[in-house]
Amino acid sequence: MEFYELIEMITNAVPDGYENVRLIMESALPWALAVCSAATCFFGHTVHKIWNYFFFFWIGFLVPVFLLGLIFDASGNRMYALIAVGAITGAACSYYSKKLFKLQLFVTAFLMVFISLPSYLAFMGKAASVAVSLALGAAAGILSTKYKYIATIVTTAFSGAFMLFGVLEPTLGIPHTAAAVLSVALGAAGLSLQCFIERRELKESWEELKEKKNKLKKRKKTEPDSVCLEARENTDESS
What is the distance between the alpha carbons of residues 202 and 42, in angstroms, rounded to a whole number? Predict the structure, then answer.
């Protein structure tokens, strides 16, 4: 499972000599992320900000740690220094990401889809599943910047369900086909609950979309008349 592989990457990043830390993370992290994934599925719009800060923290943490690790030998006290630098840059990246609201929405929606979907498209082949996940992730990111409530609810409901069973499948030994079916069913349940919880905001968003649509229709109707009027005025002036 792609999401479970992400957990393994995080635990494998623990340096040698910290086996106890690795063991604690291996035992606790899957269940902690399972709880977070379930909360995302059913209360995604509420906990969406947590994922925003989570993703941007790790972006801000891993990039400088990786780059500095290529330059300096990451051993002994230097490892602590790298972790400290990464924690500072990660916290800063997480904090200041809220000032780039649309970028925050795009990145979070994209990553949630991209890390949770490929394993469920494995029947298409590795390259195709990654390509489709990239395309769907990008589409989810773009839609979330334009239709925040609707896109966020749909994305979090199904991504949360996919991530949950991405953890439970290898942990509990659930067959992959059963995990895929249960993910879709749970995603639909999460979508229904979120729509009920956020029904007022969704209604307001729907009314805004209808208003924009009506304005566009009125503009298209008035534009031909204005063009004709301008053409007549030009004809009269030339004559």
Answer: 16
